[in-house]
Amino acid sequence: MNKVILMGRLTRDPETRYTQTNNTLVASFSLAVNRRFVRQGEERQADFINIVAWSKLGEFCSKYFKKGQQVGIIGRIQTRTWDDDQGTKHYVTEVVAEEAYFADSKREAEIGGSSSFENTFGNTAPGNMGADFEVSSSDDLPF
User: Fold this and answer.
1) Residue 82, domain extent
2) How far is CA 12 from CA 1, 32, 51, 87, in A?
3) Are 127 and 72 in contact (CB under 8 A)?
4) How many domains does the chain have?
5) What is the spatial distance between Cα 120 and Cα 74, in angstroms, rounded to a whole number?
6) What is the DSSP letter of 138?
7) Pairing between strand 46-54 and 89-102?
């Protein structure tokens, strides 16, 4: 299974482009995701993760996401390679977004605060490409 759940702040506004073959919108941006633990005497560290959102989800991200905003992303990790004009091989690992959420509440966004992870995924954003499911009874659970 290949599933990634991230919550972080946008390092820049999403950039959009269109594919040459079928004119599909692609939005790309980067999230600064804080590491969970801090070593004593050191500053908190963050990982900068590249995100790609396609079609309607990409349109949503490019329209509503801005630099510094806290967002939640659910997707999958993808790697790809290409050769440039000089014949140098380039490797890229990125997250392909399948769902995107606002992680700041309206009030916190206005004053620059942040919200909890649990509150984030209760607010489904337009452009959500995932499917919701519900377990009918505890007998259906495998544990």
Assistant:
1) 4-36+44-140
2) 30, 10, 12, 30
3) no
4) 1
5) 12
6) G
7) parallel
CATH of the domain at 74: 2.40.50.140
Q: How far apart are CA 125 and CA 100, in angstroms?
A: 6
Spell out a b/e string for 6-19, using b for 16 or more CB atoms within 10 Å of the CB, else e: bbbbbeeebebeee
Question: What pLDDT, in 10s, does the model give residues 105-131?
Answer: 766 655 554 444 444 434 434 334 333
Classify 76 as helix, strand or coil.
strand
- 45 by Cβ neighbours in 10 Å (0-12 / 13-18 / 19+) ranks as exposed
pLDDT at 37: 87
What are the pLDDT digits (tens) for 43-67? 889 999 999 999 999 999 999 999 9
Tokens matching residue 31: 């999230």
